[in-house]
Amino acid sequence: MVWSQSSALVFFVNGKKVVDDQVNPEWTLLTYLRNKLRLCGTKLGCGEGGCGACTVMVSRYDRKSKNVIHIAVNACLTPVCAMHGAAVTTVEGIGSVEKGLHPVQERIARSHGSQCGFCTPGIVMSMYTLLRNTTVPKFTDMETAFQGNLCRCTGYRPILEGFKTFLTEGDSNDVVNGVSNGCCGKKVNGGCCMSNGTTEDDEAMNQNGNGNISDNEQLFSPETFKPYDPTQEPIFPPELLLSSHYDDSNIVFHGERVTWYRPVKLDDLLELKASYPYAKIVVGNTEIGVEVKFKNMHYPVIIQPSRVEELTAIRVEDNGVHFGASVTLNDLDQTLQQQIQSQPKHKTRIFSAIVEMLRWFAGKQIRNAAAIGGNIITGSPISDLNPIFMAAHCLLELRSKDDHRFVTMDDSFFTGYRKNILKSEEILVSILIPFTKEDEYFWGFKQAKRRDDDIAITNAGMRVQFEVGTTIIKDISLAFGGMAPTTVMARTAAASLIGQQWNEHLVREACQALIEDLPLSPGAPGGMIQFRRSLTLSFFFKFYLVVTSELSKKLPYIKPLDKSLQKVVQLYHRDSTKSCQLSQVVPDGQPDYDLVGRPVAHLSALKQATGEAVYIDDIPRYEGELYLTLVLSTKAHAHILSIDATEALKVEGVVEFFSAKDIEPKRNHFGAIIHDEEVFATSKVTCIGQIIGAIVAVDQATSQRASKLVKVDYEEIHPVIVTIEDAIKNNSFYDDWVRQIKDGDVEDGFNKSDGILEGELHLGGQEHFYLETHASVAIPREDDEIELLCSTQHPAEVQHLTSHVLGIPSNRITCRTRRMGGGFGGKESRAVIVAVPVALAAKKLKRPIRCMLDRDEDMAISGTRHPFFCKYKVGFTKEGRIISLKLDIFNNAGNTLDLSCSILERSLFSADNGYKIPNVEFNGKCCRTNLPSNTAFRGFGGPQGMMFCEMIFDVVAEHLKMDQIKIRDLNMLNEGDLTHYGQKLDYCTVRRCWSEVLTSSHYAERRQKVDEFNRQNRWRKRGIATIPTKFGIAFTALFLNQADRVPNASATAASAGSDLNGMAVLNACKTIMERLKPFKLANPKGKWEDWVNAAYFDRVSLSATGFYKTPEIGFNIATKTGKPFNYFCFGAACAEVEIDCLTGDHEVLRTDIVMDVGESINPAIDIGQVEGGFMQGYGLYTLEQLMYSPQGFLFTKGPGQYKLPGFGDIPAEFNVALLRGAPNPKAVFSSKAVGEPPLFLAASVFFAIKDAIKSARSEVGLSTEFRLDSPATAERIRMGCEDEFTEKFPTPPGGSFKPWAVIV
User: Residues with Cβ < 8 Å from 1012, sequence gap 6 or more?
Assistant: First the structure.
């Protein structure tokens, strides 16, 4: 076969034919769509297939089944060359604002499922693809479709509610007018009880004024939605339908650096592999794409075998099912499910284990594209399927041009980390997955940080075969992932168990053998050593129970499992989520045009749903535009000896390299409070990821490739200070920013206390993970003017600091921000790290410059929420009254101050949460460490301070054996109380929120049910907890509490955007209305247009600059005088969880929230903020964990390693009520801020988890007084539930080993 002549790429996009005879084989579909076709609705969120922002639909005609197959894929990983002969549909192809929205687009927009909107097009396309395959889907179909999509804003609930209107009657009949899907199915007085407020579950809400759902309150009206008519969908391109030419032909695409081959015959494939033995075989590109993008790998030859029949064949044979190596995981899943339905149950036990494992394998988009063979050959030590394949003894078919052999997949297949027995010229052709025999049992296990779309921490496949009709083990296979550089088999354990009876004694022997088989050194890669080793024993114990349960159904002498063990063997199942959202009713007679208090979709929602909303990197390229890539430090603490960009500048297309030499020394510094950060490092670096320079080139690929060629020589400096404990040990603080707030006399309080407790607590940081990374475009204009288009929360600060660095007046710099794809505080002070270098390059080169950070770059350099550490001493009475509290609080500021001191202050202000403590001493220090500077994040230190307070209340209550509710109620604030910084509480509603959530959640009744559940179950435990919140509203920096609607805008931050800007706009409106007053009096029957025209012709100004400054605030922390806050927001939440004591897995069963937002301006937005804030807080306190090496290297630099909550993590029942009758005279239209205050309520989940762990510990006689740091990860949950398995793995003494990761 001759492959010399390059083929033309032919595919369809949104119905239009694309023919490209010069395609670049290195391009992904996303790059092609955005850069070549300018279809920018499809977004780049992560580049590794983990967020779903780039989801599109790919359609092909299956000539065997004669059906058009639609799949959702990640365009960021899908090679554009793989689209030959396919039809691609993007969000632009299904609807637009001008021509009309598709029902999917309309429903997500009008149900308030889009906030920042960056993730919306991807979610739209996941749902659209589902509807193209299943016109009336079920809720489980929808859940599966969204496993690969993330949203950081909404909390997911409104998205699900909007799309539930597409579901089958059985799944959607619990949606009541878009308000609640908790319908009881009963009728009251001839009408729905949810409409007249008399449901059993909501009786309490009626009693406290939060009932009475009326038509005025509906967050959206499904009856107004455009009906979905599947017959009106675009047709598949007839050209692809009628001819198989594009499928049957060998093709080759030659690029400058890469050649792409697609053979259609096995012989041609083998010939290619013989010619290019180190060529990469690519089907879904889900592994190779990540290696190329993030690991700087380069593969000159790529072979796509997806049209080779032998590699795509599926055959049912006598001994199992044969799958070609190119069969996708989705097709594997569907085929095995069909076999499970058609074959006897005993034959399909391996198939069932695979299907169950695939539920949690990556996201739907990845499973649609990734192939079985890729999963095997990649050889990841934490592969979800390889332990199952090995335990099942699957048969692999290997071929080369000169050889053909079959091998059993066992522990001899992998020879090292990501290495196997295949010769360089060999390929994997197929795998045979066997049927199981009647006396053979099989199960798979996996534990990850998050249930959906997550890589395993540890996993396993287990098989046992018995002598016929007995419980004597004939054969057993135990395969594990995550326990070595490869998937391994526990050979010693298996050998010791053969011939033994299947009984309880077996478990002890097996555990001892597994300990010997699966050693891990304390510093092994991946960390979590005791957890991982405990999981291996937990998995075997679960396997023992599963098999015993099955044997009891077959053998009469085997007793059924005790009731307390039965939940252990149940597969995870969750019904359709339930929810209820309650808010105020607008007054009777309020005109329809008056939108205040009505749930109106925000202005950009429709554009976001159609992909027409323009974000920074969507802006069309300017003539002569260049791309900038930052050059980053690879050392945490070192002198810079030299910087050599010679090799980088030799790369064709590179224009320039900038470094500190290109900036005046006095202008090379910036900072949010003090100028202690360098634009480009000069002589020293103080963290990994510090910016050393910038490469500017003709395009992103060239710029990024060249940036890696810049050579920097270092001389390392010791010590490297990474953790707070390191900083304390080395006295490394920002000494000018030590803070203290005192009230009363703590020593006198301790003397009067009945009890005193002391301890330490730690809260981890949190990555912002806004879906749109930092991005800026700078355009040089005449007279040294610079126009900056920037994704920032603080355009004025970007303008000011750019002016400072460039040495030009601020009035020559225009900074524009139309919208952001998320910010959460991370774009308040840190946007300058991209904007300033971009502006500098634009000024120097006189050409437009663009930069949008890749996800790993953004996470490596832009900082996170501050990790906090606290030493506490608390004094209390025997009745539970907290008398005295001393806190020494430390935050990990990083290598520069940024906003750390203000964040520390906020934590000190918030450390009383909702309680009156007469004697306090709160001390705070900012730790100077060798990490990228940490920064603002939603809550700004408040969630950390409040969390310490609640942790201490939990400790005291447990010590006194006192009810957690009672101790909180006993110490709770009241109207008129003074805070520890002397501010009087006016309009204090914390007790109302508290009592209402206790009533509406039926806390007392559910507490009893939780206790009963725990008595009946040994290895599954439930917990329930309720907490309040108090959050002060204002910038703690006084000068920021102002708004001028034209110049000098303060940051959109501190939850004060509506308060400040809303009042400024209102003042401007009042000015204009006052000017119009004479014309209204002169023409009282006129219309608005008449009065405006009359004023214009009378030369009256029709514009006004509104200005507002928050009155009567300003606090001196040294003298403790003044008011730091304008007012307070209050709320309370109750959460119930269930944990798996054997694995650390957990599920949030129900959450109830009552939130005081004053008189809501827009209930839909306010409820969305409450839910979104809660889910972000849920991530903070349970799932999201930053992992750093002892040298300061961040391991968690993308969604593959860093897990934020997904669709499947929202509470199974999620109820939110906005407190009624609580006006706020201190803000616009009596409203209250809502962005930050709800986040802390997610701590209720943390304390519910701790409550469940207490039950597990109590059952085995362990103390219920124990330390649980945040986040409450699976590791911490499992190791908190100490038992006979965990006790076998004691923690080695500190200093005896070098840990893989440290808690910073």
Answer: none
Task: For residue 855, count CB atoms less than 10 angstroms from its CB and return exposed for 0-12, middle for 13-18, buried for 19 or more.
Answer: buried
Look-up of token digits 């998050």: 450
Q: Kindly state the average pLDDT of the residues 498-518.
A: 96
Using an 8 Å Cβ cutoff, are 34 and 44 in contact?
yes
State how far Cα 261 lies from the chain centre.
36
Q: Model confidence at 1117, in pLDDT bands (50, 70, 90)? A: confident
Q: Is the pLDDT of residue 1002 over 50?
A: yes
The four Cα atoms 1119, 1122, 1124, 1130 give a dihedral, to 10 degrees, of: 120
pLDDT at 178: 37
Ramachandran area for residue 1157 (φ above 0: left; ψ -120 to 50: alpha; else beta):
alpha
**What is this structure's pTM?**
0.96
Strand order in the sheet with 488-489: 440-448, 456-466, 473-481, 488-489
Q: What is the DSSP string of 824-872?
A: TTTTTSSTHHHHHHHHHHHHHHTS-EEEE--HHHHHHHS--BPPEEEEE
Work out the end-to-end distance of the chain between its first and last CA atoms, rounded to an integer number of angstroms.
58
E strand or H helix at 1027, and its extent? strand 1020-1033
Phi-psi region of 941 (alpha: psi -120 to 50; beta: other; left: phi over 0): left
Q: Is the dihedral of CA 23, 27, 28, 31 positive or negative?
A: negative
Which residues make beta-bridge pairs with 581? 1216
Half-sphere exposure of 430 (CA within 13 A, CB side): 21
DSSP 433-477: EEPPPTTEEEEEEEEESSSSS--EEEEEEEEEEESTTSSBEEEEE
Q: 475 near 464, Cβ under 8 Å?
A: yes
Q: How many CB atoms within 10 Å of residue 711?
A: 11
User: DSSP 3-state helix, strand, coil percentages of the chain (rounded to 5)?
Assistant: 35, 25, 45
What's the CA gap between 860 and 862, in Å, rounded? 6
Query: Which sequence positions are flagged as catalytic?
Result: 1236
DSSP strand E in 510-618: where?
A: 578-582
CA distance to 98, 364, 420, 895, per residue, from 673 (Å): 46, 45, 55, 14
The pLDDT of residue 1042: 87
Residue pLDDT, tens place only, 1063-1116: 889 999 999 999 999 999 999 999 999 999 999 999 999 999 889 898 989 999
Side-by-side strand order, sheet with 684-685: 684-685, 638-644, 711-716
DSSP string for residues in 613-672: S--GGGSPPPTT-EEEEEEE-S-SSEEEEEEE-HHHHHSTTEEEEEEGGGS-GGGSEE-S
The span from the CA of 585 to the CA of 866, in Å, is 40
Helix, strand or coil for residue 573? coil
What is the three-class DSSP state of 756? strand
Q: Which pLDDT value is given to residue 2?
A: 60
User: How far is it, in rounded angstroms, from Cα 1270 to Cα 1302?
Assistant: 14
Closest CA to 799 of 815, 816, 775, 819: 815
Q: Are 686 and 636 in contact (CB under 8 A)?
A: yes
- 3 state DSSP class of 748: helix
Residue matched to tokens 């299907």: 355
Q: Is 573 exposed, middle or buried (0-12, 13-18, 19+ CB in 10 A)?
A: exposed
Helix (H, G, I), strand (E, B) or coil at 333: helix
Taking the C-alpha atoms of residue 351 and residue 442, their distance in angstroms, rounded to an integer, is: 9
Q: 3-state class of 581 per DSSP?
A: strand
Phi and psi torsions of 265, nearest 5° = -115, 145
Q: Quick one: how far is CA 326 from the chain centroid?
A: 30
